[in-house]
Each structure stands twice: as C-alpha cells, then as structure tokens.
Amino acid sequence: MLHIITGPPCAGKTTYIRENAKAGDLIVDFDVIASAFGAEDHAADGIIREVAFNVRSEAIKAAIDNAEATSWIVDTNLTGHYPDDADVVLLDPGKSVCLERAKQDGRPQSTIDGIESWYAGQKGRNMNHKTKNFALIKSGDDAGTISGYFSTYDRIPDSYGDIVAPGAFAETIKKREESGHPFPLCWNHDLDQIIGKIDKIEDTEKGPLMTASFFDTPLAQEKREIVKSGVVYQFSFAYDVLDAGPVVLDEGVKAWELRKLDLFEVSIVPIPANPRAEMTDVKSGRRNSKADEDAIKQAIALLQSVLDDADDPNDGEDKPDDNGGKPEDQKASNPEAEALREYFKNLKTEE
User: Which residue range is the domain that position 230 belongs to?
Assistant: First the structure.
C-alpha cells in the first residue's frame, strides 16, 4: 500500500507516519532526509537541498515501482503523480494551529510562508504557488501599471525541485484571451483583494512577461503605493498542474518538469526573495533621482572599502588556524570579489 500524507507545514504529517508506520515500511520525508545530510531547523539550502531532493525523488520512484511494499510519502502540495489506488491522507488542523506549532518549534520564516501559501491556495485544492521578483514597475498619470516575469524557464530547480517548461502557459493564456476575461491581479492570493487585472502576457524565451494595471480604487491604490516604496517586490502565481514529469538536467541533476499549467491568478506577495530572481528596474514618480544616484555611489564606495579591508593581511589579530598556520598562509583568490572589483572599475570608466 502506498500512503500519501499531505497537508500544510506543521500539520503533523511526520508524527502521523511515526504513529502508523511499521518496522520495514519505507518512509519518504524530505525534512528527515535533509536532516540526515546536515540540514538544521527544517532549512535545507544549497548542496544539502539538492542532494536531499535527488534522494527523495529516487525513493518515491522506488515506492511506486514496488507495489508490494508499504510506503509512506510526505507530500505537502500533492505535486507528485501517484497511482490511482494510493491512499491519500489529508491532515488539516487549521491555520492558527499550524502557525502556533511553527512558533513553538522555532521554525524558519519559510515554514510560516509555506503555511500561509497552503491556506491561501484553498487548503491545497490542486492549487500551488511560485514566486519571482518584479521586473519593472511603472507609475504615470493613470492608476498605475506593473510588469514583470511571474515565472521563468530557467533550468534550475526551485525549492520544490520543480522547473517550468517553455510553453507551459501557452494554452491557458490562449483560453483567457479568447474568453475576453483577463486574469485577476491579487494581493497575497486573497481573492477578496483583487487589486487589478492582467492586461497582457507575452510568452518569451525567458518566461511569461505580463503587464497588469491597478484598479482606481482605494484598496488597489494603497497596495500600489506599497509596491512603489520597494518594500514588496515579488509576484506569485496560483496554478494547477495539468501535465508534468521527471527530467534529468545537466550534470545529472533530477527535477520535476511542469509542462502544462492552468493559471488561476497572479499576486503581489510580501514574502522573502527568490535567490535566483533579479529586479531589473523600478520606475515610480521621481525615483532614480540625484539623491538615489548619490546613495548608490556611497554604497559602492562602502563595498570597495570592505573589499580592501578584507584584503589587508595586517587587519586584526593574527590567529592560528586549526593546523597552526596563520591567516596569510592560507589566503586564496576570491573570484566573486575580483569580479565585483572589475565591475566597479568598468563602472568608473563608463562615468
């Protein structure tokens, strides 16, 4: 029997399996796997996340292929494709209970965000969310517009191990255009806070580039001002998976490729940044003024000063390392620092 245990973070999925699984059963739990590789406090990043994800993918495949065995799989958003006869158990103690458990356990902010997203997605009803930074914000005499890539087609798995295939949005975009009903622009996936509409989505090589306009209402303009301030700077989109499957990327990295998606809405969300997304430009009112230029130059000067200090072998006390050597004995080149210096050098030349 294949048991799929789903529900929001802190719903008690691991505890449920611990109380019901028997010796010899296969248990596939990403947090447990990541912890075994060195992750702490339910926060797996970098190589630990990548290795743990690959192990989880292989374990799920083995569980599906071995129908005779009893397996338990933790899948928060039911993103996997399982046999029709799998036993799916939904654990939903309520949002307030999950948030309180996260607080008591000292969980990271990503867990809080996960709980919020799960419940914002109507309790996991085949609705998932992914986040990207704004590419461009514009503000003119009208109610205001905003544009950017709400998803990208890069081949780097996100925190769930997913990548989005080029053309995944093509059909859902076409259907909406033909219907004459634009996608809503929401605030934090709250359908009671629809603050605008998606005017256009251009499916580019990089990803779907959308342009949306804010409604001329007090709520929408309030959110627009928050966006203009730069405090909130990310899109997130709600979707259902219509077609997906495993894929092997460069260097043998395994991922789950989302090949066809049904888009529900795009939201502006106040959650932590996706480390791979970049804000390319912000235009709002009189931003990018002389004051902004001076502040940027001061920041560059400060960064250069920090780099120079880091290179000073006489800065601070000489402390032996674990092998008895001194810091200058082990000083190595820093490609990132050198690249940053070269950037500053080119920047001055252009000025």
Answer: 126-268
